[in-house]
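Data card: per-record layout.
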Amino acid sequence: MGALDAVYQDRLLALAGAIVREGHVVDAPDTETSAVSRACGSRVDIQLKLDGDRIVDYGQTVEACALGSAAASAVGAAIVGCTVAEVRQAGAEMRAMLKQGGPPPGGAFAALAALEPARSFANRHASMLLTFTALEKAFKTRGF
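The structure for this 144-residue chain is written out next.
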């Protein structure tokens, strides 16, 4: 299997093809933000509802390549019910997986392992991390 075939495996394409929480509108969100990848133009807009430091509702609009869309979908499937610290940990694990050859995120964010074969595509890392970039911006606006 070639490198490109490994990246665009069935699981990754399934995640990208049906982005979880895509278009979901959060009623009275506590914060809304977006992030754009300068490398490829991918964009993620998010809305968060928090109860203390726990995410109780999440919505997103994603305009990204298959890799960025798959990452956004995996995060959308996992985020509700997580704490800010758990999301930050998953983001750190994702960055380490892509940039340092670390293991994929675990727990609720284990679906991000589908992106592990893409670690060699450094020019796509920003797109795969875009949702976490937006989340970090949102957390900071709420003082986390």
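Known properties of this structure: The chain has a mean pLDDT of 94. Helices lie at 3-7, 10-17, 66-78, 84-100, 125-128, 130-141.

See the next section for split statistics.
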